[in-house]
């Protein structure tokens, strides 16, 4: 298949790049578990695509190398395939469009574009036709460009900021002084994590619910005992709450799809005789995992905790009521 061929050629060029003393066609065939004839075809395709590869006889063996001084100069500390990987993954930056991060990354990709020859870029575009990277959903962060820039600079300078913040579940805006520890991109959204002076603890703020009031001259130090990974460890996504052990039964039809993914670092799975899957998590708060379970519909059943079972049941009743109510209105019209 075409996708397999491109993936194999990518691995071959990486193997040659990493082999200080070159590789023979036989060695490449062994690495790829394919035939010598196939490797020769791949090498020819890579050469035609503009890759700086050549063959040289070493100790009676013909070995393939990557040219060190090529017609284009790969800027240190990058390697050729690292630059190529950047080009293939350039679609990932769409989520940052309108921000300074996007501008800088776009500038980087333009440099990559002028560094790689047209034949190599054409080859990489062929790879993109079979391998695509996308982030959905994501927000438009252009309107928050200055907030992100200034919050990021304040975090770098260890200076406090004052923000007007509107939480998700209320329209009431509060003024808060925050020591910004980290800017974090997750699941299509940008967050600021820092010490909130109003609440007296580390909090997470959604950037698009922030309005920057002012940058202060007050300096802060991130506590030595603050560990971002530890801070996020028990959250199913971003929300925090009481710690629960959650056990969910996944139907045999959906057990493979659920079991193939890592949904949380605490995930534990057990396959049952009927083909179903028992999944356990230790999570802080139930709101986000409740939405995850609801997204699986009738393919998931909460075993514990009982409080989550009751919340799912209540949501199911609300959903059923919406549709039953619509049916009643339709009958009235008829």
Automatic annotation (TrEMBL):
InterPro entries with a match to the protein in the record: CBASS_pafABC_assoc_protein, HTH_11, PafC-like, WCX_dom, WH-like_DNA-bd_sf, WH_DNA-bd_sf, WYL_dom
All copies of domain WYL, residue ranges: 146-214
Superkingdom of the organism of origin: Bacteria
Domain Helix-turn-helix type: 10-57
Gene3D superfamilies xref list: Winged helix-like DNA-binding domain superfamily/Winged helix DNA-binding domain (1.10.10.10)
Residue ranges occupied by any WCX domain in the UniProt entry: 243-320
Protein's UniProt name: Transcriptional regulator
Organism (species): Desulfoferula mesophila
Lineage start: Bacteria, Pseudomonadati, Thermodesulfobacteriota, Desulfarculia, Desulfarculales
């Amino acid at each position: 298949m075409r996708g397999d061929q491109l993936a194999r050629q990518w691995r071959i060029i990486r193997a040659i790049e990493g082999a200080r003393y070159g590789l023979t066609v036989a060695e490449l065939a062994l690495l790829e578990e394919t035939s010598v004839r196939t490797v020769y075809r791949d090498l020819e395709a890579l050469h035609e695509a503009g890759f700086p590869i050549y063959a040289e006889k070493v100790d009676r063996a013909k070995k393939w190398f990557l040219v060190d001084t090529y017609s284009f100069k790969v800027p240190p500390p990058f390697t050729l395939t690292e630059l190529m990987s950047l080009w293939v993954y350039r679609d990932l930056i769409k989520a940052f469009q309108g921000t300074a991060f996007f501008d800088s990354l776009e500038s980087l990709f333009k440099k990559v574009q002028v560094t790689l020859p047209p034949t190599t870029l054409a080859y990489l575009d062929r790879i993109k036709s079979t391998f695509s990277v996308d982030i959905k959903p994501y927000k438009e962060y252009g309107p928050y460009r200055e907030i992100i820039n200034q919050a990021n600079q304040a975090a770098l300078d260890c200076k406090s900021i004052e923000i007007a913040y509107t939480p998700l579940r209320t329209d009431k805006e509060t003024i808060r002084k925050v020591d910004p520890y980290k800017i974090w991109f997750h699941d299509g959204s940008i967050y600021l994590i820092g010490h909130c002076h109003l609440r007296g603890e580390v909090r997470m703020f959604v950037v698009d619910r922030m309005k920057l009031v002012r940058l202060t001259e007050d300096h802060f130090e991130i506590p030595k005992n603050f560990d971002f990974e530890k801070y996020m460890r028990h959250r199913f996504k971003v929300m925090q709450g009481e710690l629960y052990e959650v056990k969910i039964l996944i139907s045999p039809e959906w057990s493979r799809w659920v079991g193939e993914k890592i949904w949380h670092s605490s995930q534990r799975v057990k396959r049952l005789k009927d083909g179903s899957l028992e999944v356990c998590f230790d999570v802080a708060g139930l709101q986000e995992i409740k939405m995850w379970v609801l997204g699986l519909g009738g393919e998931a059943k909460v075993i514990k905790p009982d409080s989550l079972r009751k919340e799912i049941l209540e949501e199911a009743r609300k959903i059923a009521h919406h549709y039953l109510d619509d049916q009643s209105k339709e009958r009235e019209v008829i």
